[in-house]
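Notes from hallway chat w/ T.B., transcribed later so I don't forget. T.B. wanted the structure written out for a chain they're using in a teaching module, and asked if we could keep both sequence and structure tokens in one place. Agreed to drop them here.
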Amino acid sequence: MKFLSRQEELMLLSIWKLDDNAYGVTIRQSVTDLTGKYWSIGAVYDVLDRLTKKGLVSTVVGDPVKARGGKSKRFYRVIKSGFKALEEVRDLQQKAWVDLPEPAFEKK
């Protein structure tokens, strides 16, 4: 089992949801919308690099875009090992939440 950090899990879920439109800027917006927290583009690319090195996503470089000064976008896609890692995380979380007692709150 490959354990995922929460950041890696959120990125994989965002990439999956974005499908063919998953590149740095759209992934950042998706994760920001999901968490309600600011994510720097550097933080996003750090996690994307880890996911790539772990073999959980594949990348493809798109065609150069004139509006971007001739720069290409790097698109990400969740691959089989990434889906397996997400499934393992989901199953583990479901098991961990079973049979928990009600939280005990202290009275002030």
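Follow-up for T.B.: Helices lie at 6-18, 24-35, 41-53, 80-96. Might be a good example for the class.
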